[in-house]
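Job type: complex structure
Entries:
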Amino acid sequence: MLEVTLNVYSGRPNPQWMLADEQETSFLSQLDQITQITLTKPPGVLPRLGYRGFLVNRSPRSPQGPLSLLIQDKIVDFGQNQPNRIADNRDLELWLLSTARVEIPAKVRSFVTNELNQSPIDAGAASGVGASGSNCPQCMAVDAPAYNPALWNTPAVEPYNNCYNYANDQITNTFAQPGRAHGVFPVNIDCDDYQNAATADGLALSAGFANPLAAGQGWYVALAVWPGVDFHWYRQDDNGCWSHKPGQTPVTNLDNSGTPITDPANCNRGDYEFCCYMITDRNVVIS
Amino acid sequence: MAIEVELDIFSGRRNPTWVLEREQEAEFLTLLKIIQSRPAESAQTAPKAPPLGYRGFNIRSAGHQELPELLKVYGGAVCQDDKTYPDVDRELEKWLLGAASPFVSDAVTRAISQKLGK
């Protein structure tokens, strides 16, 4: 049984419904016809209200096995296990919309239909960098995580994980704080205290992000602070550009100017000042 | 039904969150009704907050007769569901910032005031 969720609301539960057997057959057939591979991700949950795609899920207990897709702006995001694919048009999204009945109010259906009939957001521009990674520096870390906002931008993950969770690529659902897992609590909100707290967790200071990091040696992250107010972390993804998750908001690879982040030391950070680069890895423990 | 306000601003730390007092509720609802009486546009027209720093206020109230479950107030607009109401002078944001003062530092208040043109 396939469950469809329309991501459109901010505070209310999103509309959800099940596909009938023949609809499921039709969906899978349409999916099979989308064969063009893309490295581009859907815009995911950009910092905006309104239409943010369809989630299509099948339980791991199903005889056909689990399925978890995000379909938005012609892109089908299979998550980490398969490359994404891109359709020529938005027919699949329009068809998914048509399978809902009373689950979607008329006004919302009209709104989403209008969205789908407009030109989609340029997925390359929305994600900041296209598949070729143009303008991204070379990523020297073998273990650098992939840029996959769909993994983080879900109701079960997004509100409970912050910049530090994201930089370390660890979903703990604890709104992780540097040092907390090791009993180290920054006294001042400044670069020194937060760098020391992260070091207690197992991160290591780095002069930059140009040196190769072999398998098992981790990936590059960066610390910034709004002095006396807050801290923030970025991480370098395997495409070479940097991304971040500001608090409970969605993951993005854009800075405050809407520009892809090629170096957090030189991007628009608002009130946050750049502190340092660090290296994290899968052995780091955070909470 | 309590009206909860969240100042959406931080990245590492949790956002300040508090509940309006009774007199504040009445003032808030009065201001909101004025805004909601204006012509609404689609949610797509809502101003987009930057990723880092001040991102507005989230107002939550489960089961309140006069409120949706979530309102977002940012950038001279009030958004609920698929509608955006204009608040060009940012009156509601300024009021909410005043209500926030016991719960946030002077540095945060100053930073947001600058953005609101206060």
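Summary: Chain B is about 30% helix and 20% strand. The helical segments of chain B are 22-36, 91-100, 106-116.
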